[in-house]
Design goal:
This protein is α/β, with parallel strands linked by helices. About 55% of the residues lie in helices and about 10% in strands. The chain is built from 16 helices and five strands. The protein has a five-stranded parallel beta sheet, with helices on both faces. The longest helix has 22 residues. The chain is globular. It starts with 16 loop residues before the first helix and ends in a 6-residue tail after the last helix.
């Protein structure tokens, strides 16, 4: 009797093998996770090994390899090999791969590049939504809403996201501060204490300055929250709560904007959960800030009159 296999929810066209493995890891058995770890470490393994050899290398069975293939969206081992070949064959220029990414080729059309970008950003957002720990986000939000002081640490590109989170929290009445310079950040971290929250943002989770600031804040009694793309990173290991903002590593390097979008999704969720905690305070603060800036926003009718008078409209 032929076995009927339900379509995998990870069978999205356009995703590479590594992206599919990372998205499906939480659902994998121990045996399947071993296969996944092997393929993440050696993406060329399907091209070099038969299904039996791959199973032996992972310490499992060919039947488990087949189930693994179906879980990540391939009908079997041959389609997985095709996917691995496509991933590895996108570009042969090592410098191009490390600086721009394996998904792009110098000869690609604008449509090809756009489609690859959409795939990258969609994958980052979908995988972040699937892997982000909702309970951790809710606990962090409750602590932030009740905090006497919130420190947010981010270096380089992550400083942009740190500033965005700080601005949102400050607007709803929270005493939030952002630090992108390690000396100033350490100074603030040293005077944190119980009843405060420290948030470290780093895509890799290995940024030394961010790690140092978050670790110091936690040692003083602050609740530590990490937002990274790697739950096994050093930054995640020093945090009380970790939010995974996943990014596909095969695309723009080293400052992938899909990583920023994944981080922004995690930050947006955290902000909205905080805003829910004290509805009266949130609405009052938002109304007050909106009223304060309203005079600086010209209406369409007012702008039309300005143009008729020959005056420029900002």
């Amino acid at each position: 009797m032929t076995e009927v296999v339900a379509p995998s929810k990870h069978s999205t066209d356009g995703f590479g093998v590594s992206s599919r493995i990372l998205a499906a890891l939480p659902e994998m058995s121990v045996a399947m996770a071993k296969i996944g770890a092997l393929l993440l470490e050696n993406p060329a393994a399907p091209l070099e090994l038969s299904i039996t050899e791959l199973a032996q290398r992972a310490g499992t069975s060919p039947a488990t390899v087949t189930r693994f293939c179906r879980l990540i969206g391939y009908a079997g081992y041959p389609p997985l090999r095709v996917g691995a070949a496509a991933d590895l064959g996108r570009s042969s220029a090592e410098t191009w791969q490390s600086d721009i990414g394996r998904a792009f080729d110098p000869a690609d059309t604008a449509v090809d590049v756009l489609n690859a970008l959409v795939s990258s950003h969609t994958s980052a957002l979908q995988t972040t939504a699937a892997r982000l720990d909702h309970n951790a986000a809710e606990q962090a939000a409750r602590a932030i809403a009740a905090s006497a002081h919130v420190d947010i640490y981010g270096i380089g590109g992550s400083a942009v996201l740190a500033n965005e989170l700080q601005a949102r929290l400050y607007r709803i009445g929270l005493n939030a501060h952002v630090w992108s310079e390690v000396h100033e950040g350490l100074t603030s971290a040293a005077i944190q204490g119980p009843g405060t929250v420290a948030i470290g943002i780093s895509n890799t989770g290995r940024t030394g300055e961010t790690l140092e600031m978050l670790a110091l804040a936690r040692s003083t009694g602050a609740l530590a929250v990490a937002i990274t793309g790697n739950p096994d990173s050093p930054l995640a290991s020093v945090a009380d709560h970790h939010l995974t903002a996943f990014a596909v590593d095969a695309y723009l390097q080293p400052d992938d904007l899909s990583a920023k979008h994944a981080q922004l999704l995690a930050i947006d969720l955290l902000y909205l959960l905080v805003a829910q905690q004290d509805f009266a305070r949130t609405t009052a603060m938002l109304a007050a800030s909106a009223a304060a800036v309203a005079p600086h926003r010209r209406s369409l009718r007012g702008g039309t009159r300005s143009r008729e008078r020959g005056n420029p409209v900002a």
